[in-house]
Automatic annotation (TrEMBL):
The keyword Signal applies. Residues 548-567 are annotated as: Disordered. The keyword NAD does not apply. SUPFAM superfamilies: Alkaline phosphatase-like. Residues 389-544 form the N-sulphoglucosamine sulphohydrolase C-terminal domain. It comes from the Bacteria. It comes from Akkermansia biwaensis. This is N-sulphoglucosamine sulphohydrolase C-terminal domain-containing protein. It holds the Pfam family SGSH_C. Belongs to the sulfatase family.
Amino acid sequence: MTLTWCVRSISFTTMSSLKTIIAGTLVLLAASPLMAQTASEKNKKPNILFIITDDHAYQTLGTSKQDSPVALPNFNKLAKQGMVFDRSYCANSLCGPSRACILTGRHSHMNGFVFNGQHPLDGSQPTYPKMLQKAGYQTALFGKWHLESNPTGFDTWEIFPGQGSYYNPDFIIPKPDGKGRQTKRFPGYATDVVTDKSIQWLENRDKDKPFLLVVGHKAPHRAWCPALRHLGKVNTSKLTPPANFHDDYANRPEFLKKNQQTVARHMAIYSDLKVLKDQVPEEMRKSIVSPGYGWDLGELGRMTPEERKKWTDYYAKRTKSLVDGMKSGKLKDPKAFAEWKWHAYMEDYLGCLLSVDDSIGRLMKYLDKEGISKDTLVIYCGDQGFYMGEHGMYDKRWIFEESLRMPLIMKWPGKIPAGTRNNTMVQNIDYAPTIVSAAGADTPENMNTFQGISLLPTAFTNKKPDQWRDAIYYCFYENPGEHNAPRHDGIRTDRYTLSYIWTSDEWMLFDMQKDPMQMKNVINDPAYKTTAEQLKKRYQELRKTYKVPENCPGGKGTPIPKFDATW
């Protein structure tokens, strides 16, 4: 009765206001789950899929007409859905050291892993997977590790011994009781096996937790052995070697002439180029093999009889083309023979990339099938650059652009603008802080361990942030070494590459705007005197900023310091 009276006593205006309030309240109540869900989604930690290949040259990334000597549809699709970083550089162009820089976000002299084979990586130091573990992530690593120690920071890991093998690869895995490790062989092609293991882990993970998955491919590392299904799939007949393929190394430091990674003189005729020794006339063998470069291919011993027959049948055709060319005289000219080698090299190298493209397709399809693509940050990178015959070379190591610059693609739907190319100067020491920031684990304690910078500000806007770096620092230590590249360090700015060769006490300066192929050293050119002085000053400033020891990387004959991992 009282309630009725109260309602009847309310004026029409008041009643209308009350109805408005009630309606508004009902709308808010109905929307509250959606609002909560939106807030929850906003704060949701992304999954992180980090794909790392070995020795992938940016000239073969497959994302545009400029970098696609062979069709790589899944790389192309990834680029269209994400962002390609056109100026990502490595800190030390060698597999293990580069991976240590990626893992720790610090330069080689700070993480202690300066070249392969010196000593295992100190696994007790801060790394991005450890930080993500503490932030509630489940973490896994499959494939190439190459840091000579057991991985730390990963709940699950299965890694190749050393470089790993292409065919029927071995994996080092923890023993079931957690005490020690064991080696097991798995049938199949390495890229496929790593992808299988990665997807199986994704299927069996705790799907209520975010994940970090590192997929480490061997391809396209030397000796460039494609999957058997890809033999004959790459036609290089329309490709031509780089314009400086027959580089005579004039106008540059004398030590460059001593390099031992040329296509013409230093590729192993049997293992690198797959020439079948028993099908080459004995009297011809000495004329086609550079002294010390006739190694046999160990991968053959890993194949089943059926696999080996298919492989041998295919490479018999290449061997015949070489033998016929030598007999006819077409390949007796050193330049013609070098170009024949280059075509063989490119066919196998690009053939290895076809399997990586397949892998990316499978992984992206899995994310789509599970409905988690929009919640996953995908990062693809090579571990440094690689020569596709530039300067007549293969491999990496030197500060030349082809080995210094490395592939990087990032995809994060709704966060990173799709189909964009980023021209900001970044470095592989930036990848760890980027991952940690994306995961929301960017506490001062974590971020202060890094020498790199999170790429999220430039990735989200596709603009160079204020106060960004004006140069990157590079340092290479491995001399003496397999390819006789010198110990050297230097800097890369927007326009210039400056380097000091410690092994031979020589300087290099290249104007990348006027001389992008780095054919003329202008360090002593009077026109560049002021520029050289300014760059040398900046070089010393960066050495100080990054706490580079005074005698580092050291001159000829100087023992390499056994750096402690300090941070």
